[in-house]
């Protein structure tokens, strides 16, 4: 699996997450469409869990429940988890006892992140504040050095 491509995907996930969440309306974090669907805050916390789980490819850790946090803290926590994962991709080889391969990380937690960011975009529309249109293929997605 090509590390540069994985890092570019992470940068794309970051870009889309920030784009979908910027200027979110008041009350967005708690918005629920009912029937057991996650709120925006719960989705963002789950995104953090997915990034942290992905980090186990490089650094053996055990899953821990996240402490409840505000929308802003949860938002920043996810970005920090993405930064840690990108740093590991850039500077560490996969651990010998990794629970998954890089390919499994791609088609498991990383693509799951993309799905949940799409759910956040849908919640924005439900909140009456649709995400502004952007041509993602033309976006300036930058991979950290």
Describe this structure in words.
It is globular and about 45 Å long. By secondary structure, the protein is mainly alpha-helical. Helices cover 56% and strands 0% of the residues. α1 (3-21) runs antiparallel to α3, α2 runs parallel beside α3 and α2 runs antiparallel to α4 (102-126). The protein has a single domain (3-138), classed as Four Helix Bundle (Hemerythrin (Met), subunit A).
Keywords:
single chain; 145 residues; mainly alpha; Four Helix Bundle (Hemerythrin (Met), subunit A); 4 helices
What's the overall geometry?
globular
The proportion of residues forming helix, as a percent range, comes to 55-70%
Mean pLDDT: 93
Structural class by helix and strand composition: mainly alpha
Task: Note the beta-strand portion.
Answer: under 5%
Biggest beta-sheet profile? none
Tell me the domain tally. Answer: 1
CATH class: Mainly Alpha
How large is the radius of gyration? 15 Å
């Amino acid at each position: 699996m090509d590390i540069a491509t994985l890092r570019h995907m992470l940068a794309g996930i970051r870009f889309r997450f920030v784009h979908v969440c910027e200027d979110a309306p008041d009350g967005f974090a708690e918005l629920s469409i009912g029937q057991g669907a996650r709120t925006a805050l719960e989705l963002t916390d789950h995104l953090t869990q997915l990034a942290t789980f992905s980090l186990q490819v490089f650094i053996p850790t055990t899953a821990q429940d996240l402490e409840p946090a505000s929308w802003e803290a949860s938002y920043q926590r996810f970005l920090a988890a993405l930064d840690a994962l990108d740093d590991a991709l850039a500077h560490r080889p996969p651990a010998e006892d990794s629970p998954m391969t890089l390919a499994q990380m791609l088609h498991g937690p990383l693509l799951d992140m993309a799905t949940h960011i799409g759910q956040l975009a849908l919640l924005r529309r439900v909140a009456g504040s649709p995400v502004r249109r952007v041509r993602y293929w033309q976006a300036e997605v930058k991979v950290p050095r």
